[in-house]
Amino acid sequence: MGQLSLVQKPIDEVHTRDRGTYLQFFAANICNVSAKLIRAEAPKLPPDPHFSVIARAFNAERFTILRSKTQGDNIQRDRTVSDIQGDELRRYAVNFHIGGAADVKQLGREVHCPTGSMVMTSGSEPLSFKKVSDHDGLTVLLPSSFVEERLTKVEDICARRLEGPSGLQRLVFTSMASLQEEASDMSPHDFQKSISILSELIVLTLGQLSDVKSGASPVRSANLTRVKRIIRTRCEDPDLSLTNIALECGMSLRYLHNLFRDDGQTISEYIMFERLRRARRMLEIGSPLTTRVTDVCFASGFSNVSHFSTAFKRTFSVSPVDVLRNR
Questions:
Q1: What is the distance in angstroms between the CA of the first residue and the CA of the last residue of the chain?
Q2: What is the pTM of this model?
Q3: Pick from 284, 232, 224, 285: which is nearest to 255 by CA?
Q4: Which residue segments constitute the domains of the chain, with CATH numbers given?
Q5: Tens digits of residue pLDDT in 175-219
Q6: How far is CA 261 from the centre of its chain?
Q7: I want to staple 283 with a disulfide (CB 3.0 to 4.6 A). Which of 6, 7, 75, 323 is the partner?
Q8: 3-class SS of residue 120
Q9: How many Cα neighbours within 13 Å face the side chain of 267?
Q10: pLDDT in tens, 96-134
């Protein structure tokens, strides 16, 4: 199986009857998966379907838009922990099911996605994705930072079908389908700008689902998103304080604490996790020959290497040295 690289082909396509070739294309443009055939144990499954796929992907600055049409697709794609560890790029996938259906399992949820539905999954969590027989789908890959800076409680949105189609959902789908069709005639700059703008529409659409699931008011959700964006931008600063964050956002410390209490964590826990996530990212893309754990520790906002290593292992169940060594 191929490994998703930080450097992707601007345009990649496949037209094949070979499942292995398709899975290599899938890994190169979407993510690593472990695939297995779905046996014909149920009467509705064909015993030996004739598989074929036509797919085309356009990539720009960690954004991807991909259209795939499959026939006889009885492959179940499971994204395991080892698959996740093998990917350098972590993203969210938004799937529009144009024709056919799929079953998705993630974060303890199972959802059936019929024709016309829209669902988002996380590339950082184990996943099971099953399509049976013919399917036509449009997939948009969004960088994790892009989504998480704009939405709160993203994990509550993943593997939940967006009912519709609403007016906004139809607008997003038709716009994305049009972009995918016209991308080959666009300059890289125009494509990058277009997919960034339309991705904002996707996040806006998913935000409706977020508000319904969390029960949070739009104002509080917007304020929490703004605070998180500031923390992500400045988490490497060891002198970052709650007072500075509150002043920059124009809110009181009490209100700041209440925002994160609604989010199910303290603001200090969130800052710690963002620093640890930044550190892990640096270790994952660093070279074991030139990258030092001490440097990563200080570059992530920590001032004590021992404290950093303990917190890192407690959070990720692996030491910083082991992450770097596995590179």
A1: 17
A2: 0.64
A3: 224
A4: 11-214 (2.60.120.280), 219-326 (1.10.10.60)
A5: 999 999 999 999 989 999 999 999 988 988 887 665 444 445 566
A6: 25
A7: 323
A8: strand
A9: 25
A10: 999 988 999 987 788 999 988 889 999 888 889 988 678
